[in-house]
Specification:
The structure is a single chain. The radius of gyration is 23 Å and the shape is globular. The protein starts with a helix and ends in a 22-residue tail after the last strand. About 11% of the residues have low confidence. 17% of the residues are buried. Strand 5 and strand 6 form a beta hairpin. It has 1 helix and 9 strands. 17% of the residues lie in helices and 36% in strands. It folds into 2 domains: 30 residues; 98 residues, Sandwich (Immunoglobulin-like), CATH 2.60.40. Strands 1, 2, 3, 4, 5, 6, 7, 8 and 9 form a 9-stranded antiparallel beta sheet that branches. It has 150 residues and is α+β, with helices and mostly antiparallel strands.
Length: 150
């Protein structure tokens, strides 16, 4: 009886010690290209990179880039106030799609990307867009009459 209790305690302890790292390994979604990763917890990672009206969508499956050759995709944007649009994406490179949107994405936009692969399988990624546009790079100069140090 005592041995059985020790075994159970050891199993529970191991589960508690390793459970967090296993969850992190399976559920971690990292934006590798400076974008936003999809909200849904499917096996496919969609990373949405928006710069002005230009959009790039990168695809990964468990950390491995997904080949987009022969695939087709569309992006659906729903904006508060009823302004919705759909744009067809083009393949670009081996693991991504690109598009020029009719307008810049804004915080609060609901974005869905739907992909049909050449083998007939489909995948979709959903986003609640929450990224602010990046500020333009500023050059810091010196006021007239001031000299740089040194």
């Amino acid at each position: 009886m005592r041995t059985e209790l020790r075994i159970r305690l050891a199993v529970v302890t191991m589960a508690l010690l390793t459970g967090g790292s296993m969850t992190l390994a399976c559920g971690a979604r990292v934006a590798k290209h400076g974008g936003q990763v999809n909200d849904d917890q499917g096996e496919m990672n969609f990373e949405l990179v928006s710069r002005g009206r230009n959009l790039v969508v990168h695809l990964e499956d468990h950390g491995t880039p997904v080949v987009t050759r022969g695939a087709s995709a569309v992006v659906l944007v729903k904006r508060e106030g009823g302004s919705d649009w759909t744009t067809k994406l083009r393949t670009a490179g081996d693991d991504r799609f690109t598009a020029t949107l009719p307008a810049t994405l804004r915080r609060g936009d609901s974005v869905s990307v739907n992909v049909s692969f050449a083998n007939g399988s489909i995948a979709s990624g959903h986003f609640s867009f929450d990224m602010e546009p990046k500020p333009k790079r500023q050059s810091f100069g010196f006021a007239p009459g001031l000299k740089p140090p040194g």
